[in-house]
Design goal:
Strand content: under 5%
Oligomer: single chain
Distance between the termini: 37 Å
Transmembrane segments: 26-45, 57-76, 88-110, 179-200, 206-224, 236-255, 267-286
Shape: globular
Keywords: Membrane, Transmembrane, Transmembrane helix
Helix content: over 70%
Length: 290
């Protein structure tokens, strides 16, 4: 097929997208949410029409759908095939990543929404608040008070620090631009693609050209949305490398794609390329600050 046929096929799919969404096609719903997300990002970039946290909420919905698609496929495999080695290793691995991804996405959506509300309240508050009258410094504490209060304060600070250290692994994953978060979203996105009915490129050559265009667009996206461009490039490199390796592993063991296809130019005409591009896009979208 030539480029014109490829464009016609893509246009027909987009025109049929509302019908597919209404019929409950989960992959179509995920594509629609990604399109809406891109519109939300553009509106937020150039206007103030987007509600606080809307970007992260759309990403949360996309993650939930991708995880749900995988969970459906995993349950069906368990019922039909039983606990095979592939189902145990990849199935339960994907299950853990899916739960983590949903939890992190929910945390990010709630955090972003609250932050947006606080910023709105600060903007609505008067710039100069009336100052309270100057007060005299408090008297020095007595030795008894010093020993009791300071000791209690120190112990409270110690307990607070210990509590914070116990949740640091999860908090590190929920930070924007966290490599761990990027990788988790990459994994669950690829699991979701291999667990659903996707539309691969019409030919390996067209898939390769599309991949090159996508990579070029990725550099532009990082430039526009990441505050630290070099960090964005590092994430892009890590996600691309790991995503490629995962697309081969999951494509063969979970998607049933022959290794001969995945290790040749036919890779660019398979579902593995769709999984790679979707995983990269979703992980970069979620970790960016655009």
């Amino acid at each position: 097929m030539d480029i014109q046929s490829y464009i016609v096929q893509g246009t027909d799919y987009l025109l049929d997208l509302p019908v597919k969404v209404q019929s409950g096609d989960l992959f179509a719903i995920m594509v629609a949410l990604i399109i809406i997300y891109c519109i939300v990002v553009l509106l937020k970039k150039f206007t103030r029409l987007v509600a606080p946290g809307a970007k992260k909420i759309f990403i949360f919905l996309i993650i939930v759908i991708a995880a749900y698609i995988f969970f459906q496929s995993f349950l069906l495999r368990i019922l039909t095939e039983g606990l095979t080695l592939d189902n145990i290793i990849f199935g339960f691995g994907g299950l853990i990543c899916g739960i983590l991804a949903v939890a992190i996405a929910l945390h990010g959506a709630v955090k972003s929404y609250r932050k947006g509300k606080e910023e709105k309240l600060q903007q609505a508050a008067p710039e100069t608040a009336p100052q309270a009258p100057a007060s005299y410094p408090p008297p020095y504490p007595s030795p008894g008070e010093f020993n009791g209060n300071v000791t209690n304060g120190y112990s409270q600070q110690t307990r607070s620090a210990e509590t914070q250290q116990s949740v640091i692994p999860f908090l590190n994953l929920t930070k924007d631009n966290s490599v761990g978060m990027v990788i988790i979203y990459l994994i669950i996105a690829e699991f979701g693609i291999f667990s659903s009915k996707t539309i691969a490129a019409v030919s390996s050559e067209m898939g390769f050209y599309f991949f090159i265009i996508f990579m070029a667009a990725g550099f532009i996206f990082i430039k526009l949305t990441y505050h630290d461009y070099l960090k964005g490039l590092r994430h892009f490199a890590v996600v691309t490398l790991l995503g490629f390796i995962l697309s081969i592993i999951l494509g063969h063991f979970w998607g049933g794609v022959p290794l001969d296809t995945l290790l040749s130019m036919d890779y660019f005409g398979s579902d593995a390329l769709v999984a790679l591009i979707t995983g990269i896009a979703l992980s970069l979208f979620m970790s960016s600050k655009g």
